[in-house]
Amino acid sequence: MRKGGFARRLAFFFFLAGILPVTCLPGCGDPQAGVDYVGEPMVTIHGWIQVQEYMDVHNPRVCLLWIVTAGSPDHVVAGDAPVEGGFPARFQIDILRTPPMNALNDFTCGGFCPDGAHVGAAYIVVYDDLGESGLSNCLGETETCPDRVLGGSMDYVVAYLAEDAVPGSSTAKFVGGALKAGYHLMAVERVDREQWVACQDDCHERFCYEDEGGEPACDDQGLDECIESECGTFFDRLVEAPDGFSTEISITLFNDESDFDWPEFT
Hints:
The chain is an alpha+beta fold.
């Protein structure tokens, strides 16, 4: 399966120390609201968790891991819910509040891009809370952390927009359209990396050459237009799920983290 970029780092983050600096507010294992909270969830994420082979799992929980790549350092912000019963098992996450601002990517360029918005994107991840203290308490402490990631949704991610996406803006391109502010369930449209590389090679063959001095040169405008119009982006595309949060999400768990095939959208 494909591996690469930030998605690969996420898949191995919980096994290798020092790959990704993180901030966790709130963290996996932290409640989203106090015991006296009364109100309806903003959205509910639900579906099934299944396994392909026997897994020794003790305390499974399902998380939203918010990925921030527009700033430095990268941050992961998470909230979670328990998984009840044996596998296959149903799961449900009731989202009671908006993610904090440090969970969002700043497409406003610090205010210099007025048509931008603040956007969050989160993987839906299942982990074994062996330490019974929440996964966020282990982030950055992988050498002593007893918890492990078991899998996650490879077909959907959760997006949150603090402001409306302006048509044609970088925000709209990232989320696949001029979405309104709020939570959205995003389907992942996979990009064939081998086909993308072959398309790039074809564009280079058509628009690159040797100049009169025998040095390599390219028609930069033609090359850029070829890549943009014929090859598209290297990253997987996000589009709003037709049925929104009514969608039943299927998650398969694996014993071997090399079987993870996380979406690559950043």
